[in-house]
Design goal:
The complex is a heterotetramer of chains A (604), B (149), C (127) and D (252). Chain A is an alpha/beta fold. Helices cover 35% and strands 22% of the residues of chain A. Chain A has 18 helices and 23 strands. In chain A, α2 (32-41) packs parallel to α5 (155-170), α14 packs parallel to α16 (519-543) and α15 (488-505) runs antiparallel to α16 (519-543). In chain D, the strands form two sheets. Chain D has a five-stranded mixed beta sheet with strand order 2-1-5-3-4, with helices on one face. A two-stranded antiparallel sheet of chain D has the order 6-7. The chains are: A alpha/beta (604), B mainly alpha (149), C mainly alpha (127), D alpha+beta (252). Chains in contact: A-D, B-C, B-D, C-D. Chain B binds chain D through residues 1-9, 11-13, 15, 18, 21-24, 26-28, 97-98, 100, and chain D through 27, 29, 32-35, 111-115, 121, 124, 176, 178-182, 212-216, 218-219, 244, 247-248. The structure holds flavin-adenine dinucleotide, protoporphyrin IX containing FE, iron/sulfur cluster (SF4), FE3-S4 cluster and FE2/S2 (inorganic) cluster.
């Protein structure tokens, strides 16, 4: 535990072996979104950040390419074009008022980071340099524009470090390696209100109740439901899963982004920045196949389109390699000096993990599961929605775990680092406003009951099943059946599998029986969240009988605005153990906010 | 909590504001003296061990001869001071690194300091008050120039 | 008393081993220097006393000891120069590994010059 | 063009597997008096990482094996450990780069309190980091609400040290840090360097003063273990030397 504020620590007490802490604002997650919120909240309210990882281990640090903002430092640009690109990139499922906020506040978000010390690459006259990125265009699609601000190909790393540095400066309270496993709700006037979160301390195995007026979830994505993914092992969607289990809705879960260029077989990401700097995708015969699919933007088309085109190339037998099962990313025509200056990390990944020398050889790549567009629905002020219109007072969400929705059905590259900064900041600010007047919600009788039940369930298991084996089956099946191309048949196969896996999950055996640093136990709990989220994803996907953005139904290949220009809202309504997903999941819909851009056909 | 002792030793003093920054000046001194010592020590070794009959040429007369020459007088005096302080400071570093118990560390650092002071005084006195032709010495033991006096 | 963490030996490279050698030789020379100041001080006492002590330096066994001393000083001094170059020039930091091997080479050359001569002195004729 | 690409392309060989032996230094604070070595045989491919091996052991053989990891590709800094005697990231060390005819030794990094198996207490490490003021120190935000201007040359001056992922591979490889753990350690100095040489920063004096300490830069004995261990290829010793020079000069 890191606590730089002893005053706050002394506020903690221990009752019946459970620690109790009290703060005005508790932030769950110390990635970009969580720490950006902490920087807003820390100076104005008693704030704690709880994270299952040391802050600098968060996956924001893996982001490479850049952060979009229409600074117009290198060429003409404005936030209105950025809004349009975001809306169109998301295949019109984007809430346009939110997208406008995102694009407008982007400029300040970047300047804030620069002022906090982020070492952006610079133009010759000393301003923040910008590069091209997929789907970002000038004059509503006429040509690619240089909008992504970057620090070599470690922009996310620099954002995470800079935010952490500023948290150190402000003396923010961190509780590191604390796994939040439950959100405690108390019924007040007939409405469930959040009163605390319960965390499991990895080092000791003890439980901590963090009582707080406002709670911000910033727990990141859940890419580990897939096997091939750019996501960290720790991205198991705990936060989203906790909200789900509380019966609160999850929005647009069917939309998961597959990034075109993961290292073949590994999923480690090679940033789109490579293509922004001029890299070209080629098939086995060396053809620049993207010219056929998107003649204007070519390799810089949005990710859903590029990934789909790649999958098509491979299906039609134009893949490279002995099994014709991958494609090439070619940067051999770029100057080594440029590569070293702007893409040093990703070229090193190719060298280290594939043994390929990118100066001279094309790099084998494949689409990789990358980003969850869906998540915890929030308002533009990061307040969590209880249903289509009402919010949960005192509960906020920001970052990849949230769905504002600024990404719609397909996120544009560089818009997520932007999202975490803009909406992380908003979450922090609004929470501060809220706690100024809000009272503490009383704790229920036994706040740790929920977590105890989970712990007992996994601990008591003396069965025969291994966590690793169940997780592997889930991931394999998700890769096979719920990836870029989906059909009702493939999706229902996963549903059926999950049903079987749930039964086996009850029969797991832990080998680590200890209290201290029991990662065996936590992996088992994380698997529970993975199963839940995979199920919602697949169930929502089955229901969306159209193809839009990242969701491609081969049995419904067209976009269907008449029936599906709306957000999916999924609710857990019954016992997740019940056989049919439909028995415990209810789907509802929420209208898309459309302001300036009526849906049009999406061409690049 | 853990059974394994934390390596962060309790010995080191809490960071305090300095008077003279020994670490910095020590560091500079090691480098400066090192460079000068290369010349002094290799010169010394060359003359005493390599040139002529090597170590076998060394006796009172040889030393007395050298010390009466102002050139070697200053050479040896400089070498004494530079090398001894260099070595002592180096040993101080090593003791600081490895002596983890406060008492032991005190004793060792104290002995280094004491021996340095004693030996510097002794050596300096020997060099400065040296009489190449001590009264009553056997003529064979003293340098040949003693006879001429 | 709780146990200390001991594991395998750290497999450092030239930089680490040169430091280990620098420490060892430095310490060795230091202790020699202490003795050497004391014995040289005898010149102030009387020529006989000094000569008696210095005669022991002329024993073959001490002659070999002198080789060790010169070897230690040589290595310490040459590596000392290497360290100084590393400290004060970016060239040094970049080429520290190569410089270590240069130090070893120069050291061997030094010994190649000194050892035969010393052996001649101690075992060769002439008192 | 097309032929050039195809011919230059790598044709992966059919994947061969083999058995590698891992000898892992285990320590369970709830049971063991002291650490012990344990052997595992694992089916591996040449392109697998040490992290894959640890996962295979944890997921298929012994669930109680405990280590930290997250990103699995060398950018989060979770899994610094000692592999065959050297500090490495488990996720960045490939089996093919090791001699698998001999067992592969894996143990926790040295110099920080051992908590369990491959996990050490990182707090002393982060304490040092925090104590060098690792953040941009400036009077306030810019007046025009824009970015501070910095030329590409000024930006390049401290590029190397911005790459640090705080993995502690360097600090825990440093023989001086092992001695008593009081030394700030290379990682803290690297992160101070990152700001000392940032043209926008105004706090260089403060940081130089902190590092001009008994436990500061002067304790570095240029052993280069840190530079050899750094998974990000940062020229750590060089950076420390630059800080020393800056202290002597009294300015960056
Ligand atoms: C390889 C890669 C490259 C990318 N490149 C770009 C890019 O160039 N541009 C761009 O805009 N976007 C990019 N993205 C996307 C973007 O980086 C992420 O979406 C974004 O960083 C998510 O930030 P976050 O703060 O929401 O979550 P994270 O940074 O993932 O942080 C999640 C935090 O929550 C904590 N947490 C999770 N569960 C719990 C729990 N149960 N209890 C306590 N704490 C918990 C974790 O410890 C962590 O601190 C990339 C993503 C990846 C994977
Ligand atoms: C001949 C010329 C010499 C040179 C060029 C030289 C150079 C150096 C240098 C540069 C250091 C600092 C090492 C560091 O900070 O890492 C050092 C350390 C040291 N020197 Fe010398 N030195 C010389 C002679 C001597 C002599 C004669 C002695 C013995 C009296 C000696 C004993 C030591 C000791 C004990 C250390 C400390 C080692 C450590 O801290 O690891 N040196 N020397
Ligand atoms: S300098 Fe290198 S080794 Fe040290 S903490 Fe940073 S990344 Fe790790
Ligand atoms: S390993 Fe240690 S001694 Fe200096 S060169 Fe690196 S900090
Ligand atoms: S797991 Fe992230 S650095 Fe190895």
């Amino acid at each position: 535990m890191t606590s730089t504020n002893t005053e706050a620590e002394s506020a903690s007490t221990m009752i019946d072996g459970v620690h109790y802490h009290q703060f005005d604002i508790v932030i769950v997650g110390a990635g970009g979104a969580g720490m950006r919120a902490a920087i807003e909240a820390g100076p104005h309210a008693r704030t704690a950040v709880i994270s299952k990882l040391y802050p600098t281990r968060s996956h924001t640090g893996a982001a490479q390419g850049g952060m979009a903002a229409a600074l117009a430092n290198v060429e003409e640009d404005n936030w209105e074009w950025h809004t349009y690109d975001t809306v169109k990139g998301g295949d019109y499922l984007v809430d346009q008022d939110a997208a406008e906020i995102l694009a407008k506040e982007a400029i300040d978000a970047v300047i804030d980071l620069e002022n906090m010390g982020l070492p952006f690459n610079r133009t010759p006259d000393g301003k923040i340099d910008q590069r091209r990125f997929g789907g970002h265009t000038r004059e509503h699609g006429s040509a690619a524009v240089r909008r992504a601000c970057f620090a070599a190909d470690r922009t996310g790393h620099m954002i995470l470090q800079t935010l952490f540095q500023n948290c150190v400066r402000l003396g923010i309270n961190f509780f590191n390696e604390f796994y939040v496993l439950d959100l405690v709700m108390t019924k007040v006037d007939g409405v469930d209100q959040p009163s605390a979160v319960v965390a499991y301390e990895l080092a000791t195995g003890e439980l901590h109740v963090f009582r707080s007026k406002a709670i911000i979830f910033a727990t990141g994505g859940y890419g580990k439901i897939y096997k091939t993914t750019s996501n960290a092992h720790t991205l198991t969607g705990d936060g989203v899963g906790i909200i789900w289990r509380k019966g609160l809705p999850l929005e647009d879960m069917e939309f998961f982004q597959f990034h075109p260029t993961g290292l073949a077989g590994l999923g480690i990401l090679l940033s789109e920045a490579a293509r922004g700097e001029g890299a070209i995708l080629r098939n086995a015969s060396g053809e620049r196949f993207m010219e056929r699919y998107t003649p204007t933007l070519k390799d810089l088309a949005p990710r859903d389109i590029v990934s789909r085109s790649m999958a098509t190339e491979i299906r039609e037998g134009r893949g490279a390699g002995p099994d014709k099962d991958y494609l090439y990313l070619d940067i051999t025509h770029l100057e080594p000096a440029v590569i070293d200056e702007k893409l040093p990390d990703i070229t090193e990944f190719a060298r280290t993990y594939l043994g390929v020398e990118p100066y001279t050889e094309p790099v084998p790549v494949l689409p990789t599961a990358h980003y969850a567009m869906g998540g915890i629905p929030t308002t533009n002020n990061a307040e969590v929605l209880r249903n289509n219109t009402e919010t949960v007072k005192g509960l906020y969400a920001a970052g990849e775990c949230a769905c504002v929705s600024v990404h719609g059905s397909n996120r544009l590259g560089t818009n997520s680092l932007l999202d975490i900064n803009v909406f992380g900041k908003r979450a922090g600010k609004n929470a501060v406003e809220y706690v100024k007047t809000a009272p503490f919600v009383p704790l229920p009788e036994n706040p740790t009951a929920g977590v105890q039940a989970i712990l007992d369930m996994v601990r008591s298991g003396d069965g025969t099943e291994r966590v690793g084996a169940i997780r592997k089956e889930l991931q394999d099946s998700m890769d096979r059946n719920a990836q870029i191309f989906r059909t009702d048949e493939s999706l229902s196969e996963v549903t059926k599998l999950i049903e079987r896996l749930r039964a086996r999950y009850k029969n797991i055996a832990l080998q680590d029986k200890g209290k201290r640093f029991n990662t065996d136990l936590l992996e088992a709990i994380e698997l529970g969240f993975l199963l839940d989220l995979a199920e919602v994803l697949v169930y929502s996907a089955r229901n969306r009988k159209e193809s839009r953005g990242g969701h491609m139904r081969e049995d419904y290949p067209e976009r269907d605005d008449k029936n599906f220009l709306k957000h999916t809202m999924a609710y857990l309504t019954g016992d997740p153990e019940s056989a049919e997903a439909g028995d415990h999941i209810r789907l509802d819909f929420k209208p898309v906010v459309i302001t300036n851009y009526p849906p049009m056909e999406r061409k690049y | 909590m853990s059974l394994i002792e934390a390596p962060r030793s309790k010995v080191a003093s809490p960071r305090k504001k300095r008077g003279i920054n020994w670490e910095k000046w020590g560091w500079i001194y090691m480098r400066f003296s090192g460079i000068v010592l290369v010349v002094l020590i290799f010169g010394h070794l060359f003359v005493n061990l390599f040139a002529g009959r090597g170590v076998k040429a060394i006796d009172f007369a040889f030393v007395a001869g050298k010390l009466s020459d102002p050139f070697w007088f200053w050479w040896d005096l400089a070498m004494l001071w530079l090398a001894l302080i260099h070595g002592a400071n180096g040993m101080r570093t090593i003791v600081n690194d490895y002596a983890n118990r406060r008492v032991i560390r005190r004793i060792l650092l104290g002995s280094i300091a004491a021996s340095t002071i004693v030996l510097l005084t002794l050596g300096t006195l020997v060099i400065t008050t040296f009489d190449p032709c001590p009264a009553g010495a056997h003529p064979a033991d003293v340098p040949s120039f003693c006879k001429e006096r | 008393m709780p146990k200390r963490v001991a594991g395998t030996l750290y497999r450092g490279r030239e930089g680490m081993w040169s430091w280990v050698l620098h420490r060892i030789t430095g310490t060795a020379i230091y202790f020699f220097l202490l003795v050497h100041i004391l014995d040289t001080s005898l010149v102030r006492l009387s020529p006989q006393a000094y000569n008696a002590v210095i005669d022991t330096y002329k024993q073959p066994i001490m002659g070999l000891g002198e080789i060790a001393l010169v070897a230690a000083i040589g290595l310490h001094a040459l590596n000392g120069i290497r360290i100084i170059l590393i400290d004060f020039s970016s060239f040094g930091a970049k080429h520290q590994r190569a410089m270590f091997w240069v130090v070893v080479t120069l050291w061997l050359l030094l010994l190649a010059g000194f050892v035969p001569r010393q052996l001649m002195h101690i075992f060769g004729g002439g008192a | 063009m097309s032929t050039a690409v195809t011919s230059a392309a790598k044709v992966p060989e059919p994947i061969a597997t083999f058995t590698a032996t891992f000898i892992i230094r285990r320590f369970d604070p709830e049971v063991d008096e002291e650490p012990r070595w344990q052997d595992f045989d694992v089916e591996m491919r040449a392109t697998d990482r040490i992290l894959d091996a640890l996962h295979k052991i944890k997921w298929e053989q012994d669930g109680s094996l405990t280590f930290r990891r997250s990103c699995a590709h060398g950018v989060c800094g979770s899994d610094a450990m000692r592999i065959n005697g050297k500090n490495r990231l488990a996720c960045k060390t490939l089996i093919k780069d090791l001699d698998i005819s001999k067992p592969i030794y894996v143990e926790a990094i040295k110099g920080l309190p051992l908590e369990k198996d491959l996990i050490v207490d990182m707090e002393p490490f982060f304490d040092s980091f925090r104590s060098v003021n690792p953040f941009l120190m400036v009077a306030g935000p810019t007046k025009d609400g824009k970015e501070r201007v910095q030329s590409p040359v000024e930006r390049a001056r401290f590029d190397d040290t911005t790459k640090c992922i705080l993995c502690a591979a360097c600090t825990s490889s440093c023989p001086v840090f092992w001695t008593d753990g009081q030394y700030f350690g290379p990682a803290a100095i690297v992160n101070a360097h990152r700001f000392i040489f940032d043209s926008r920063d105004e706090g260089a004096k403060v940081r130089l003063d902190i590092l001009n300490d008994k436990e500061g830069v002067w304790r570095c004995r240029t052993t280069f273990n840190c530079t050899d261990a750094c998974p990000r290829g940062i020229q750590v010793t060089q950076a420390i030397a630059e800080v020393k020079m800056a202290i002597l000069r009294g300015k960056p």
